[in-house]
Every structure is written in C-alpha cells, then in structure tokens.
TrEMBL record, chain A:
Keywords: Metal-binding, Mitochondrion, Oxidoreductase, Potassium, Transit peptide. This is 3-methyl-2-oxobutanoate dehydrogenase (2-methylpropanoyl-transferring). Heterotetramer of alpha and beta chains. Residues 162-459 form the Dehydrogenase E1 component domain. It holds the Pfam family E1_dh. GO terms for biological process: branched-chain amino acid catabolic process. PANTHER family: 2-OXOISOVALERATE DEHYDROGENASE SUBUNIT ALPHA, MITOCHONDRIAL. Its EC number is 1.2.4.4. It comes from the Eukaryota. GO terms for molecular function: branched-chain 2-oxo acid dehydrogenase activity; metal ion binding. It is found in: Mitochondrion matrix.
TrEMBL record, chain B:
Residues 37-75 are annotated as: Disordered. InterPro entries: THDP-binding (IPR029061), Transketo_C/PFOR_II (IPR009014), Transketolase-like_Pyr-bd (IPR005475), Transketolase_C (IPR033248). It is found in: Mitochondrion matrix. Its EC number is 1.2.4.4. Heterotetramer of alpha and beta chains. It is an enzyme of class 1 (oxidoreductase). This is 3-methyl-2-oxobutanoate dehydrogenase (2-methylpropanoyl-transferring).
C-alpha cells in the first residue's frame, strides 16, 4: 500500500526525497479518494467537496514554519492525509493537486503545496451550490434513504410542544407590543425548528451565546414563560433588572449569556468561552448563534479564525433566513451562503434545512460530538426564512411582497412539517394538538398578566453593577438623583420605586 | 514625606526636552521598540552600559499595605526596568492562578517589547499563546474566556491599534455585568497596551488614547509611571473583579529602572499618590508624563515655587478626593498629558476641580497637553508637553 511505503519513507526522508514524497502523496490521495467515495455511499456524514480543486484543508492548516521544520510538517501532514478518520471527515479535493510533470514540493511558509504549469484561478464559486442536508420533506415525509436520528415519542412530543409554545408566545407577546404593553418585540416565526431542535440536540452543560432570535434555546432549558414576560416588561423580577430592551434575555442558571444588541459581538466571545471549556477538560462545547447579516461583521471573521487556530470546541450555528432587516442576502454576500466560508478558515461545515427539525437535530448532535471529542469548531448553516418582520419597529411589506411571506408562512412552516411527521408516527393527533394549543395560550397569557402587574425595579438598580461595587462618584450621583426626585417627583414615572 | 529619586541623567532630560542634534546623539542610546529591531531578551541585557541604571525614576517608595507580603524596607528588591517588572507581574499572576492566560499578537516569543519573555516556556503554550492579527478578536475572545471565570490577560501590541477592539471594550466588556443584572461578568479581563510617545513613533506608534476609555462606565483605566508601580498596579488590575484597560508607557519600558520588590504585591486602584509635596500649585498627571512634570517641579523649586505632584494612577474611577484636597491646599492646578488637549482627560479633571474648588482657585486651571493634531513624527519635539512648557504654565499660574 502507498500508505505504508510513505510511512517507512518518512522515517528516512531527507530534503532530496521531497519530490518522491510528493509523488506518493498523489498516489495516496487518489487511493484514499476511492475509499472516501466508497465511504460516502454508506454514511450520511460524507458529502463530496465541490467547492475548490486546489488542495485540502490539511495542507492549509499546517501554518507557518521555518524551513527547518518544513520537512517535519510535511511528514505530519502526510500522516494526516493517510489517516482514514481525518480523510473521511475532512473531505477531499476533486482531484489531486500535484502536477505529474513537476513533483517538486513548494515549501513557502505561507503554504505547502506543489507547482503547477497551469495559469488557473480558483473559480469564485463551485459548479454546484453546496447541497442542503434534509431528512423530511415539506409534507413531513422522510426522504428515501434518509437515516433518521434516534428520537422516541417522548422527545418528539416535547420538541413539538416547545415549538408550539414558542410560536404561541410570539403571537401573544407581539400583540402585547402592538397594544403598547411592551416597548418592543422580535418574533422567531419560521425559525422555531432552529430554536428548539438545536437546543434539544445540545447538552445542558453547553454554553450558549445567541443573537436575539433564539429564545427557544432558553425555553428548552427551562426558562419559564413568566421569566420571559418579566424581561419584556422590565419589571423587578427581570433577571436583567430592567436595563435592556425586551428580548435581551439571559440566564446564568441556563448557561445562556445575556444578549446584547450589537451584531456578531457574541461570536469571538463564544470562542473564548469554548477555549475555557477545553482547558477545563469539560464535556461541553460553546454554541454561537447568529444570522446571515452577522457574517459580514469583522467579529464573524475574527471568531472563525480564532476558533480554527485555537482548536476550540464550538458550534457556529447560522440562521440564514434571507433577510437582515431589509437587506437580502444578495446584498450581503456573493458566496454560496455561509457554509462555504468554513473551509476558508479550515473549519468543517454543513448546510442544513433549517425548517427540518430532524435534520437539524441530527446535524447538531453529530457536530457537537466532533467539536468536543476532537476539540474543533464546526459551522452549521441552517437555511430558513424570517417569516415575521425584523422587529416590531419594522414593516417588512415595504421591501418584500406578501405572496412571498405567505408562501413560507403557510406552505413551508417548520412547526407544521414536524407535526406531520409525528402524526405519521402515530405520536400526535388532533386532541393532542388542541390540548397543547389551549394550554400554551393560557400559560402565556397567565405569565404575561402576572409579570405585567409587578413593580418596576428600584431606582438604586440604576447605579449598581456598573462595577462589582459602587465607586464614590456613583454614590455621589445616586445621592444627587434622590434629591432631584424629591424636588420634582412628578418628573419621574410613578411605577418605579424610588423610596 | 516619601523619598523620591530625583536624579535624572542628561540622557533622560535630553530625551524629553532637547534639540534635534541632541536627539540624534540619543538615537543610539534609546532602545528601539520595533519588533524588527534586535531585541534583548533579559533584564540583564537591558541594563547594559548604554542604559542608565538610575534614571527616569519616580520611585515607588510607598507600596500598598494590603498586599500578601509586607513591603517594608526589609523586603528584598531588585533593580529592574519597566518591561521586566511587567514580566515579573505576569509571572506571578500566572503562578498564583492556574486559570490565568496571556495572549495577543507575538506574545509567544516574548512580545515585541519583551514583556512576555519566558512565559510560554514556563507556563506552556496553552496558557501563553499567539493570536491571529486581529484586535477585535483578541478582546472578544478575552471577554468570553474571562466570562467563564478565568483571568484573561490580553495584549494589544500598541494602544494605537486598540480601535478595532473598541466595540468589544465599550459595548461588550464594559456592559457585561450591568446588562445581565450581575448574572455574568468579565471581571477577569485585563487589556494591556503600550501607549505614548517614544521619540520616533509617528502617528501610529505614539498615541495616548486613554480619554476614549475614560468615557465608558464599567471599565477601569490604569497607567503606571515606573517599574515598581507597574508591577503592583498590573497585579491589582489582573485580580480586580472588573475589566481593566492597562496602558503601559512604552517610552519607559527600558529607560525607567528602579528597585522593585521581588514578591507578590498589589497597589490599590482608584488611589492617586502624592509623589512630591508642595504648597504653591498642584500638578496632576499619569504615566510617562510624570517624569517631565517632575523635572518642571525641580526647575520651579529653583525659583522658590513649591509644586505638589500627583500621580493619578487610575483614570477611572479616579481619586478626586486626593486632587481636591491638594488643590484646596495650593489653590492652583495644572494638568498635563501627551494626548490632544481637547476632550482629553485633563478636561474632566479641570471641570471637576473647578466645580469643587472654585472659590479656592487663585488661577485658571492650566492644561499642558498635546496639540489637537495627529501625533507627528518630525515635529514630535514641538508637539510634546515638555518641561519648559510646563514650567511656563506653572509660573503663569503662580503669577496670575
């Protein structure tokens, strides 16, 4: 076998043998490619890599080194090329990149590769877009040959119930905002599956950094409807103490970092958290959620690159819902979505149907396993559609037509799709549906009414938590404010306790 | 009264306040800061013949009492420069807390200023590591690491390059605790960055961006003036339960040498230090500028003007009480910093003191600062708030 020959050669290899080594790489690669294609037929994990034809991630990943180290690196990389597990998961280039007529290996520190006589640029896109992993069609029917994940009746019902509750919370909270009870709200319509299915595939130990359209993860982890309502009202029981706009949830108990409005800032932070988990040898990963718009931010680039270089256990879950407020993806990027960006950073990636609960569940479970066991980042691009407006401050009919929205809302609804599947399993019927819808509605309304009656946080909270303790200048400003309130009590809202 | 080393060699005087001819002759003496320059790797080398042993010292006679070891006169001390003192502080921080990490651009090999020398060898490549060249990534990553109960000591190679990380510092680090209702915090975060003039740094290796960060509730800004101060303040910053931006005067990395206590000690944050007592005027500054201000004080004393010199040390939250007490005694205030005068932190001090000491003031508050221009290369000697500019302002205030 080429593999064993190369390994024995590596033991005695000198610089002059590099050309021979390169030739063996070619042989090993073509050999391994055959095996890879065999594997692909038997495993749902393996997708042909169609993007580039110029070298694998393995070679790019070798990074900088001095020329003295280059041979060592070459050996190391060769062993990676020949290792069945690495090969299987990394994907292979369409063809070996070594030019048969010129076997000399190029060893610039920036890249280890071979020469070619062809003046050939990498095309801006692959011949075909990256396919989307899907298990169940729009009618809830499994696709032929689909390997469905293990999901028992209890888990399936739980996932569906949470999706319905999330949908219900959105409807009622949105209306509450329209009635002036909340100052602001953002819905997750169209993205219920991404919220709940990914949460169900994670472990409660995994730390979550979200953007603002992922309350379902918190809901799945047990954050109560009343807690959601407390935050939206900014009342005295809001864990965030009434300091942030509605939907900026956070819960230490549920390992869900408090949301901030700036886009993509959570991404490099999640990488830092993942590094902490890795150094603590914890059986957990960090999970960073973001949207298609966030992929244009510098922090996205920073996070992907850091995660790759520092080999951190992290899942980057992109909700590519087609719209960043009014900006369509065509004005956002010209790449084949987000999934292809993974390879640019040396990160594994997969594109998933974000409205297919089973596909999401399956992909996240597998990605999580890889992230923790191999301490590596994984990108998951979930294709979906933002059915609702960006927020209650937005009217999306100004930039997209109603027919489009209705199509996604009525025909492609992820909640409906999953319902059809569990119905087909005999795990759900019309009575269960009536029951969950009625219960969810009653629970959300009760939670909202209760939260709405609570007092606002005390005025002292204004100055607390800027630092771990109150510095003298803030004590002074606090005292000044008290005096002003005493002089002009009618200038201030009556529902905020000030005494 | 604390003992203060006032000895300044002709080299230092020249470095801060001299003609271009003198500057030229100096260029061979002052070590370059560039990563392309040949770098000395240890303290010994840096204390070679070409760098004076007792030099730009505003020595730290008083060390904080709330430290682990008592820091009286019997405490073993070692003469070292500022980058070695930083290095020692990092060693101690890493030694005393296994959950502490040091990272940034080029830190693995010791850093372009040698502050992280030998750390990777001692503590391993997983605790001391290079990051990609991306400041927003460094700070974002550091926030996440700190939020998981670690001490993240991030290096930004030059303060001039901190701006890509501005959003992470201002919108994220500073608000992390507040916005979560104290459920989460990134108090283990310390961002180190060399700041200020260095003689040949031009626009992008000379800036003093401290005032931007002083406008941000939720972070602390600390700037040391000497090796012993740097060690104690850095250890305090690293262990402070709030995110700290720690600016290091790069001009002094090699030039400032003093006796530094060997053990583990901290100097209190938000406490200014009166480093020279006087009765006629109060001078307030921080970092490398104190060396220049000290010279002006010495010159003024020859004309029987008694100056009180205060090192603010922490810029936010700052020790207003100490400055107020001093101005109430002297009746005059001068603030000096390298950063442009408009919107500089001197403006905040000036306004605060005017609010509190208005009737006691016998002259308008004076500001001797950088001009409102980008930091210039050839014109650096003109741009800088030099000794004679300060001396003139002292005299003007006293004779007002």
């Amino acid at each position: 076998m080429a593999g064993s020959t190369v390994r024995s050669l590596m033991k005695t290899s000198t610089t002059t043998t590099l050309a021979r080594v390169a030739k063996l790489i070619t042989e090993a690669r073509s050999c391994s490619q055959q095996r890879t294609w065999e594997n692909r037929r038997s495993s749902p994990l393996l997708l042909p890599a169609r993007e580039f034809s110029c070298g694998s991630a393995l070679w790019n990943a070798s990074g900088r080194s001095s020329s003295l180290e280059s041979e060592e690196l070459l050996k190391k990389n060769l062993s990676k090329v020949l290792s069945p597990t690495t090969r299987q998961l990394s994907g292979e280039p369409e063809k070996a990149f070594t030019d048969d007529e010129n076997l000399e290996v190029l060893d610039y520190p920036g890249a280890k590769t071979s020469f070619t006589h062809e003046l050939k640029f990498i095309p801006e896109s692959a011949a075909e877009p990256v396919p989307c992993y899907r298990l169940v069609n729009d009618f809830g029917q499994p696709l032929p040959w689909a390997h469905l994940p293990e999901m028992d009746v209890k888990l399936a019902r739980e996932i569906y119930s949470h999706m319905v509750t999330l949908q219900t919370m959105d409807v009622i909270f949105y209306e509450a905002q329209r009635q002036g009870r909340f100052s602001f709200y953002m819905t997750t319509n169209g993205e219920e599956a991404i919220n709940i299915a990914t949460a169900a595939a994670l472990s409660p130990q995994d730390v979550v950094f979200t953007q603002y359209r992922e309350p379902g993860i918190l809901m799945w982890r047990g954050f109560s409807l009343e807690s959601f309502a407390n935050q939206c009202f900014g009342n005295g029981d809001d864990l965030g103490k009434g300091r942030q706009m509605p939907v900026h949830y956070g819960s230490h108990e549920h390992k869900y970092f408090t949301i901030s409005s700036p886009i993509a800032t959570q991404l490099p932070q999640a990488v830092g958290a993942a590094y902490g988990l890795k150094m603590g040898n914890e059986d957990a990963c960090a999970v960073a959620y973001f949207g298609d718009g966030a992929s244009s931010e510098g922090d996205f680039h920073a996070a992907m690159n850091f995660a790759s270089i520092l080999e951190t256990p992290i899942l980057f879950i992109c909700r590519n819902n087609g719209w960043a407020i009014s900006t369509p993806t065509n004005d956002q990027f010209r790449s084949d979505g987000i999934v292809v960006k993974g390879r640019g950073y040396g990160i594994r990636s997969i594109r998933v149907d974000g409205m297919d609960t089973l596909a999401l569940f399956s992909a996240v479970k597998e990605a999580r396993k890889m992230a923790i066991e191999e301490s590596r980042p994984v990108v998951i691009e979930a294709l979906t559609y933002r059915v609702g407006h960006h927020s209650t401050s937005d009217d999306s009919s100004k930039y997209r037509n109603k027919v489009e929205i209705d199509h996604w809302k009525l025909v492609r609804d992820p909640v409906l799709r999953f319902k059809r599947w569990i119905e087909a399993q005999g795990w759900w019927d019309i009575d269960s549906e009536k029951k969950i819808r009625t219960e969810a509605r009653a629970a959300v309304i009760a939670a909202m009414n209760k939260a709405g009656r609570k007092e606002k946080p005390h005025i002292s909270v204004l100055f607390e938590d800027v630092y771990d303790s109150l510095p003298s200048h803030l004590k002074e400003q606090q005292a000044q404010l008290r005096e002003v309130i005493a002089r002009h009590p009618r200038d201030y809202p009556a529902d905020v306790p000030t005494l | 009264m604390r003992s203060i080393s006032r000895a300044l060699t002709s080299i230092q005087r020249c470095a801060r306040n001299c003609s271009s001819n003198q500057q030229e002759s100096l260029s061979g003496l002052v070590r370059p800061f560039s990563s392309h320059a040949k770098l000395d790797t240890d303290t010994k080398a840096s204390q070679g013949d070409d760098v004076p042993k007792k030099s730009m010292n505003l020595s730290s006679a008083k060390l904080d009492t709330d430290t682990k070891a008592s820091q009286g006169d019997d405490v073993p001390k070692k003469s070292m420069n500022l980058f070695s003192a930083i290095n020692q502080a990092l060693h101690i921080a890493l030694e005393t807390d296994p959950r502490s990490y040091v990272f940034g651009e080029d830190v693995s090999f010791g850093g372009v200023f040698r502050c992280t020398t030998n750390l990777a060898d001692t503590f391993g490549k997983h605790r001391i590591f290079n990051t990609p060249l991306c400041e927003q990534g460094i700070v974002g990553f550091a926030i996440g690491l700190a939020a998981m109960d670690n001490r993240a000591i991030a290096e930004i190679q030059f303060a001039d390059y901190i701006y890509p990380a501005f959003d992470q510092i201002v919108n994220e680090a500073a608000k992390f605790r507040y916005r979560s209702g104290n459920q989460f915090n990134c108090g283990g975060l310390t961002i180190r960055a060399p700041y200020g003039a260095v003689g040949h740094g031009g626009h992008y290796h000379s800036q003093s961006p401290e005032s931007f960060f002083c406008h941000v509730p939720g972070i602390k800004v600390v700037i040391p003036r000497s090796p012993a101060q740097a060690k104690g303040l850095l250890l305090a910053s690293i262990r402070d339960p709030n995110p700290v931006v720690f600016f290091e005067p790069k001009w002094l990395y090699r030039l400032s040498v003093e006796e530094v206590p060997e053990g583990d000690y901290m100097l209190p944050l938000s406490e200014a230090e009166v480093i020279r007592e006087g009765t006629d005027i109060t001078l307030v500054g921080w970092g490398a500028q104190l060396v220049v201000m000290e010279q002006a004080c010495i010159e003024a004393s020859k004309e029987d003007i008694s100056c009180e010199l205060i090192d603010l040390r922490t810029l936010i939250p700052w020790d207003r009480e100490t400055v107020v007490a001093s101005v109430n005694k002297t009746g005059r205030l001068l603030v000096s910093h390298e950063a442009p005068v408009t919107g500089g932190f001197g403006a905040e001090i000036s306004a605060s003191i005017t609010e509190r000491c208005f009737l006691r003031l016998e002259a308008p508050v004076a500001r001797v600062c950088g001009y409102d221009t980008p930091f210039p290369l050839v014109f650096e000697p003109f741009y800088m708030p030099t000794k004679n500019k300060i001396l003139d302002a002292i005299k003007a205030a006293v004779n007002y």
